[in-house]
Sequence to fold (90 residues):
Amino acid sequence: MSTLSHEVKAGIFKEYSGDAKNTGSVQGQIALLTQRINHISDHLQSKPKDHHNRQALLKLVGKRKKLLQYLAERDIQAYRALIEKLNLRK
Fold:
């Protein structure tokens, strides 16, 4: 498993947070977690017995769920826009 490069992370934060250095924004964190979840999901399609990464995937999904709940409580319009932009079910 390769990790995301610095340039990819900066691009995600710039697109969803407005600035590449704004790594603390909830929208940017959710987008980064979604990218990592998609990457691990693709990996698990080809390696179904990789239980270590399956457990990591479940932890990332739980963390993203908590951040989405926080965003929904704080700013429902931003939540709906982010769900639409990331193509997440809700």
